[in-house]
Amino acid sequence: MLTDGPQSDWVRNVLGEGGCTIETRGRRLRFSHPRLVHDEQRRLVPAPIRLVAGVGNVADFLVLDRAG
Q1: How far apart are CA 27 and CA 34, in angstroms?
Q2: Which one of 6, 49, 55, 61 is CB 3.0 to 4.6 Å from 45, fit for a cystine?
C-alpha cells in the first residue's frame, strides 16, 4: 500500500533497482519484479486493510515477487 504515493523516493528507488531487500524478524527477504498497480477497489489487500486504505483514499500499490 503506497500511503506516500507512487512518486515517493523509496518507490522510485525500488523500481529503479528492480527489487529490494526487506529485513523483518531478523530475516532478510529479497523481492524482485516490482510493479505499480492502481486499484480503486483495493482487491490486493485483506478486508480490514482495505477498509483503512479506503479511509485514507489509498489506491496505489507496489507489487513484488519473492526472489528465490
Answers
A1: 20
A2: 49
pTM of the prediction? 0.84
Residue 40 has pLDDT above 80, yes or no: yes
b/e burial code for range 40-51 (CB count within 10 A of at least 16 → b): eebeeeeeeebe
The three cell numbers of residue 13 are 528507488
Question: In this structure, what DSSP letter does residue 3 have?
Answer: T
Q: Are 63 and 32 in contact (CB under 8 A)?
A: no
Among 65, 11, 64, 58, CA closest to 39: 58
Confidence of residue 44 (pLDDT cuts 50, 70, 90): confident
